[in-house]
Amino acid sequence: FNSKTILFNQNNDSLGRLCTQAFNALFPSFFQQLKENIEQFFTKFVEEGKATVRLKEPAVDVCLSKANASNLKSFLAAVRLADRGTDVEALPLSVLVPAKTSEVEKPKSKMIITSKRDYPLTKNFPYSLEHLQASYCKLARVDMRMLCLKKLRKLDLSHNHIKKLPETIGDLVSLQELNLHNNHLESFCVALCNSTLQKSLQFLDLSQNKIKALPVQFCQLQELIHLKLDDNELIRLPFKIGQLSQLRFLSAARNKLPFLPNDFRNLSLEKLDLFGNPFEQPHPLVPSIQLKIPLTLLESAARATVNYRIPYGRHLLPSHLCEDLDVAKTCQCGSACLSCFIQTTVTMNLHHVAHTVVLVDNMGGTEAPIVCYFCSLTCYSQFLDRYLQSNR
User: Fold this and answer.
1) Is the peptide bond before 287 cis (omega within 30 degrees of 0)?
2) 85 with 35: CB under 8 angstroms?
3) Using CA of residue 61, residue 62, residue 68, residue 73, what is the dihedral sign?
4) Which residues pair with 356 in a beta bridge?
5) In a 3-state reduction of DSSP, which class is residue 345?
6) Cα(172)–Cα(163) distance, rounded to whole angstroms?
7) Is-above-0.85 flag for pTM?
8) What is the pLDDT of residues 72-98, one digit of tens each?
9) How far is CA 167 from the centre of its chain?
């Protein structure tokens, strides 16, 4: 065997000696188990210090690499003799010596691949990786081998052809940064929003894809600090985006946003970029009225559930009702409304939610329309009075 492999984590000479002594002590037992237990030898590359011994029981391949060719040949000869039943004491075994510190390979923590030619097709990624970049590799899907890298903190798959994300990305419990810039994504699946990414993901780049909308559950990614959504086909931002309390950098330039969600006013950003969206002209005096008087029993019950914070779940209510309650709208008075409300849009200065604002158009504007909801005619009338007084 190769002492480099055995002493993979050697930090000092005493540890190296200890590991070597332990392995030497195990040699007799190891060779005794080889009697009539070798199925096949693979020695084509023995001159390069590589060989494989296939065992019958357990049915595994023992792969040897980075060995001294001469020592490897001696070792394989001893293994052959052991397979034939030769007594352990008679085997030509040499005592291992500790590897030098300079010979010990450190676990690889970073790998950068920037071309399809360099992409590993037959070898696994090192399990010790913390940073993996695989850009310009023409990947049509996320390589499942990447999802075994439990130490991965940064994954960069930008400039590929990925159309869909596997739910198992959420199993990368240490993932803090995910870069999917310039792919062919059309959606961001709900399962990722409900995964361990809720507690780990801080940076997400979905720019230059084909995403039209993000799920309501997207705002469960509570640790997000930096979110890039530029150059997509977004027609709306997440309904509860204000729940992203840690978010400090948001860019959604060059999308198809007509207005911002009401919850947008709850953000507290350092930098905001919404340039190049076709924002509509606000019409606070021309509301969309979807109010039913008297309120339906469903509407009254739903409002009470949200306003009084009554616990609910799919074990108590049908799933479609739970989904409706999850996206309940909030009136200016603070009360909830479900499907009965008055809606209008007003102008909001983006400096109210961000310290630095990139101009939203070529005219130097820093204002954008935001949706407002009202639970009753009374609330809308009070808003109208304030609006008319402020514009006299």
Assistant:
1) no
2) yes
3) negative
4) 271
5) strand
6) 20
7) no
8) 888 888 888 878 877 756 656 665 555
9) 10
E strands, 160-313, are: 177-179, 203-205, 226-228, 249-251, 269-273, 288-290
Cβ 357 vs Cβ 350: under 8 Å = yes
Number of neighbouring beta carbons within 10 Å of residue 165: 21
Q: Go through the chain and tell me how many residues it has.
A: 392
pLDDT tens digits, residue range 338-389?
999 999 999 999 999 999 999 998 888 899 999 999 999 999 999 999 999 9
* Location of structure tokens 């640790």: 223
- Which residue, 102, 108, 128, 107, is CA-closest to 16? 102
The 10 Å CB-count burial string (b at 16+, else e) for 190-213 is ebbbebebbebbbbbbbbbbebeb
Q: How many CA atoms lie within 13 A of 200 on its CB side?
A: 21
d(CA 181, CA 208): 6
Q: Where are the alpha helices (DSSP H) in 51-168?
A: 69-83
* CA 236 to mean position of chain CA atoms: 22
Question: Tokens representing 173?
Answer: 């419990």
Helix (H) or strand (E) holding 323: helix 319-326
Rg (CA), the chain: 31
* Beta strands at 131-134 and 110-113: parallel, antiparallel or unpaired: parallel
In the chain, the N- to C-terminal Cα span, in Å, equals 88
Q: How many helices (H) and strands (E) in the chain? A: 8, 17
